[in-house]
Predict the 3D structure of the following.
Amino acid sequence: MTTNTYTRRYRGPVKAVVFDLAGTIIDFGSCAPAGAFVELFRRNNVHITLSQAREPMGLHKKDHIRTLLSMSDISEKWLEAHGKAWSEADVEAKYREFIPIQIECLADYGHLIPGTLETEKALRSMGIKIGVTTGYNEEMMKIVLNCAKGQGFSPDAAVCASRVSKGRPAPWMIFRIIEHLNIFPPEAVINIGDTLPDIEAGLNAGVWTIGVVKTGNMIGLPKRKLARLNPEILEARMKQAKEKMHRAGAHYVIDDISDAIRVLDLINHRLSLREIS
C-alpha cells in the first residue's frame, strides 16, 4: 500500500461572502425575531424573557420554538398553563401561529445596519459575490429582502431555512448559496453571522467563519438603547460575547459589518501564504 503525501491547498482569493440577515446586515440588535417569540408565548399564557427568546437565535424558527419549549423553566410554565407537557403537535401549531406575528412586524425592523452598503460596494469592486441566509421562511425572507432592496442592497443569491432539509447549524443553506453562485472550494468563501448557530453552520460547511457581536443577537439591543448603555457595561458584554464566539470556533470576531473588509484582507493574506506540501 502506498500513501499519497500530496495535499492540495487553495491559494487563491476570497470569491464569495455569505451574510446572515437579522443582526448582521439588517435589523440592528436582531429585535424583530426576539420580540415575536416573546409575543407568541405571551399569547399562550407563558411568560418568557427576551434573554430566553434569544438563546436559540439563528435556528430555523420551528427549531427555535422547539428549543424554547425544551428549556426547563419554559417547559414547566407550559405544563402549568396548559395542564400537559408540550408535544411535537404543539411545536407545529405554535410555528403556524408564529408566522403571522413575525410577518406583521418585519418591515418595522427593516433598516439596514450602518456600513452594509459600503461593505457591499467594496465587495463588488473586488468581484466578490454576495449571498444571504436566514432562519426566516420564504415569505419572511422576501419581506426583509424587499426592505433591503429599497435601501440599495441586493444579494446575488438568498436561501432561507424552509428551502433546505435542515437549518443551522447544518451547512445546507451555505452549500445551496455557493452552488448557486458556482463558487468553490469552501476556502474561497466567508460566512458572517451574529449567532452561535451561524458560526457552527460556517464551520460545518468548511468556510471561513466570522462572528458579528455589537449589532446582533449577542448584545441584543437596538441602536438607540445601545448608545445609552454605560460604556463599561457595554465593554464587559462585548468581551463576553466575543469570547463565546471564539469558543464556538469563529475564525474572526468583529464588532459590526464595517469591519468585514479588514478581516477579508487578513483572510486573503493567509490564503496567499499557504504552501502546497
Summary: DSSP finds twelve helices and six strands in the chain. The domain at 32-108 is CATH 1.10.150.240 (DNA polymerase; domain 1). The beta strands are 16-20, 129-134, 157-160, 189-193, 208-212, 252-254. The chain has two domains: 16-31+111-273, 32-108.
